[in-house]
Amino acid sequence: MARKRRGLPINGWIALDKPLGMTSTQAVGRVRRVLNAAKAGHAGTLDPLATGVLPIALGEATKVVPFAMDGQKTYRFTVQWGEARATDDAEGEVTDTSDIRPTTDEIRAALPRFMGEIEQMPPAYSALKINGKRAYDLARAGLPVDLKPRMVTISRLELILPEGNESLPTDRSEFEVDCGKGTYIRALARDLAVLLGTFGHLSALRRTQVGTFQEDQAICLDKLEAIVHSAPPHAYLLPIATVLDDIPALAVTEAEAARLRFGQALRVPSSCQGTVYVMADGQPVALAQIADGELRPVRVFNLQTERRNDVDYC
């Protein structure tokens, strides 16, 4: 006998404002329980010490998580000067200290070195795998962590100046950065301090954007818990297509949609090429690939039977 799926078939995105001290996995679990959703996942991990935008995919939206993870991210972060930490953030033990505090002019002069496509060494305490084991597990066990540098992209990096006297060196500085997938802000803080002739670590981090998900869309857990039983789903749920803005949309008939759902290809003009987002009657049908005059489904959205009590959770 097949195992019955638990929870409601809710499909869409929650832009959660993740609170301090909670892991991304814990945040997904809370949202899933609050909504009684059958399936949920997140697009881009935030460490417990970080807050801000955590896109949570529900139901069929989990099929487009990679598109959210590939989007540009914006962070506001604080570097604490004078202390290196084992984890490159405030959680780790102090490994080195320095009395040097960089000036505003020195910081500004250093920032262009971290712009564009740069080589970055990930932190030893990271979730990257080395021979099947997480780097942070090896580091905690005192074992060698043999990570390789990798290329990341930073399109903007700015110093956020405090009010008042801006020229005096201080113990910490605040920044804002736009970066691509795979960038470690902890590593950026660490490397910026080294370039400035001192030590430093990440002491605060807030993510304000992930692709199309903006800070002003984000909802905190307390508010979600308060409105979920009184407000309609569209008050807090974003459409599956939220992360597909950069992909061309293609409208098809219901008959054509039925063929795609069964994995069948459709004939299209040979001039069309690439990935498209297929819709029928305003509802998502599939992600599909066009090549050699054929439209072939890659990921089909199973939404046609997911209505309960005339409430559309898509």
Question: What is this structure's SSE topology?
Answer:
Layout: E1 12-18, H1 24-35, E2 40-42, E3 50-58, H2 65-69, E4 73-81, E5 83-85, E6 94-97, H3 104-110, E7 116-120, E8 129-130, E9 133-134, H4 135-140, E10 150-160, E11 172-179, H5 185-195, E12 200-210, E13 213-214, H6 221-227, E14 249-251, H7 254-261, E15 266-267, E16 274-280, E17 283-291, E18 294-300, E19 307-308, E20 311-312
**What is the distance, rounded to the nearest whole angstrom, between the alpha carbons of the first and last residues?**
29 Å
CATH class of the largest domain: Alpha Beta
Secondary-structure-derived class: alpha+beta
| Bulk shape | elongated
CATH architecture of the largest domain: 2-Layer Sandwich
Mean pLDDT: 89
Helical element count? Answer: 7
What's the β-strand tally?
20
Number of domains: 3
Helix content: 10-25%
CATH fold-type name of the largest domain: Pseudouridine synthase
* Computed CA radius of gyration, to the nearest angstrom: 23 Å
Describe the structure.
With 314 residues, the chain is an alpha+beta fold. It has three domains: 12-71 and 212-242, 2-Layer Sandwich (Pseudouridine synthase), CATH 3.30.2350; 73-210, 2-Layer Sandwich (Pseudouridine synthase); 247-312, Roll (Archaeosine Trna-guanine Transglycosylase, Chain: A, domain 4), CATH 2.30.130.10. It is built from seven helices and 20 strands. The protein has helices at residues 24-35, 65-69, 104-110, 135-140, 185-195, 221-227, 254-261; strands at 12-18, 40-42, 50-58, 73-81, 83-85, 94-97, 116-120, 129-130, 133-134, 150-160, 172-179, 200-210, 213-214, 249-251, 266-267, 274-280, 283-291, 294-300, 307-308, 311-312. The strands form five sheets. Strands 1, 2, 3, 4, 7, 10, 11, 12 and 13 form a nine-stranded mixed β-sheet that branches. It has a five-stranded mixed β-sheet with strand order 14-16-17-18-15, with helices on one face. The longest helix has 12 residues, at 24-35. It is elongated. Residues 305-314 have low confidence and may be disordered.
